[in-house]
């Protein structure tokens, strides 16, 4: 007897010798499973980055995200992952990092104390995290995130500070982990003049490590240099930053401050399409993420769409445009 033929999709094909085959019953298609309800929480975080291999989780490395994720997963009894506004590099600190985490709705009550207290909803969670986390990372606050909030893509701008000490003795012991020693003179006025040349919407390829498919066009809204006694403070604000961009900007300004380059040289670097080797990246030790700005709640989703759009060279600020 001839075997019935089978088509490429696994269905029966009619055989001329035997006539049409009976119609096979329709396969039962399982009903789609409704996704579990999630509650998004916003976390405000501070850390001493000295002994961390940056924010982002890495195999066999001690990272900030790894520490926070582990503590949260312990409390909620399920694996959760944080997403941050700024994925800081190895050795970089934060006093104003912002992250979000999605928690299954049924796990949220695990954050509450057995005996309700008259206090903010997630203050008990903050206390428990304080007991679980290592001393060099703290979750300062936890709140329910508004609709449309994304710690990374909702952000309007990030604020960083870079601190150096020009004191002949180096850095005072209490500041040793957060200030870079630079015990030689710096011309702050020249550095400030150079910084003004870099502000605006520009292609910062000369100041960024190359990443395939990533844009290096950024809106540098503030680059200021000030002196406070022996301390030099560089304040940097942008809508977003490329990998190592802040420390590269500071490194270029230091070349100007030491008199190795003229102020105008920094602006000339903006014409490059490759990472420049004409200056060194400033050490991570002096850099701190100090804050992240977000729009009003009703503008959060629109901001995400803007942030995800990849900028092109046509948008870059140029004289006369």
Task: Describe the structure in brief.
19% of the residues lie in helices and 25% in strands. With 321 residues, the chain is of the alpha+beta class. It folds into 2 domains: 38-144, Alpha-Beta Plaits (2-Layer Sandwich); 157-294, Pseudouridine synthase I, catalytic domain, C-terminal subdomain (Alpha-Beta Plaits, 2-Layer Sandwich).
Q: Which tags fit this structure?
A:
single chain, 321 residues, alpha+beta, Alpha-Beta Plaits, two-stranded antiparallel ribbon, 12 strands, globular
**How many domains would you count in the coordinates?**
2
SSE string, helix = H, strand = E?
A: EEEHEEHEEEHEEEHHEH
Query: C-alpha Rg, in Å?
Result: 27 Å
| Whole-number mean pLDDT | 87
- Treating each run of at least 4 consecutive H or I residues as one helix, how many helices? 6
CATH domain class name of the largest domain = Alpha Beta
| Low-pLDDT residue spans | 1-31
Q: Count the E strands.
A: 12
Q: Please name the CATH architecture of the largest domain.
A: 2-Layer Sandwich
Organism: Mycobacterium yunnanensis
EC number: 5.4.99.12
Binding site for substrate: 160
Family: Belongs to the tRNA pseudouridine synthase TruA family.
Explain the overall architecture:
The protein has 321 residues and is an alpha+beta fold. It folds into two domains: 38-144, 2-Layer Sandwich (Alpha-Beta Plaits); 157-294, Alpha-Beta Plaits (2-Layer Sandwich), CATH 3.30.70. It is 19% helix and 25% strand. Strands 3, 4, 5, 6, 7, 8, 9, 10, 11 and 12 form a ten-stranded mixed sheet that branches. A two-stranded antiparallel ribbon has the order 1-2. The longest helix is centred in the first third of the chain and has 13 residues, at 64-76. The chain is globular and about 65 Å long. The protein starts with a strand and ends in a 13-residue tail after the last helix.
């Amino acid at each position: 007897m001839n075997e019935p033929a089978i088509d490429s999709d696994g269905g029966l094909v009619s055989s001329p010798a035997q006539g049409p085959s009976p119609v096979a019953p329709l396969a039962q298609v399982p009903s789609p499973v409704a996704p579990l309800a999630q509650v998004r929480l916003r976390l405000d975080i501070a850390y001493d980055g000295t002994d961390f291999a940056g924010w982002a989780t890495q195999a066999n490395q001690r990272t900030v995200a790894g520490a926070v994720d582990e503590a949260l997963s312990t409390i909620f009894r399920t694996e959760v992952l944080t997403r941050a506004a700024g994925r800081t590099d190895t050795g970089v600190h934060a006093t104003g990092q912002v992250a979000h985490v999605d928690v299954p709705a049924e796990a949220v009550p695990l954050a509450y104390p057995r005996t309700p207290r008259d206090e903010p909803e997630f203050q008990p969670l903050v206390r428990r995290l304080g007991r679980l986390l290592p001393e060099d990372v703290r979750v300062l606050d936890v709140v329910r995130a508004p609709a449309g909030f994304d710690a990374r893509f909702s952000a309007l701008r990030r604020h960083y500070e870079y601190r150096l000490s020009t004191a002949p003795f180096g850095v005072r012991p209490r500041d040793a982990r957060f200030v870079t020693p630079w015990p030689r003179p710096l011309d702050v006025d020249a550095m400030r003049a150079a910084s003004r040349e870099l502000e605006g919407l520009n292609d910062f390829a000369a100041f960024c490590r190359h990443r395939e498919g990533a844009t290096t066009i950024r809106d540098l809204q503030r680059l200021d240099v000030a002196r406070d006694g022996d301390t030099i403070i560089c304040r940097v604000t942008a809508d977003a930053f490329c990998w190592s961009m802040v420390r590269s900007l500071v490194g270029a300004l230091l070349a100007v401050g030491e008199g190795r380059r003229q102020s105008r040289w920094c602006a000339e670097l903006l014409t490059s399409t490759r990472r420049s080797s004409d200056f060194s990246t400033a050490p991570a030790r002096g850099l701190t993420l100090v804050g992240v700005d977000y729009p009003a709640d009703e503008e959060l989703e629109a901001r995400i769409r803007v942030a995800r759009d990849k900028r092109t060279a046509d948008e870059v600020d140029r004289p006369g445009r």
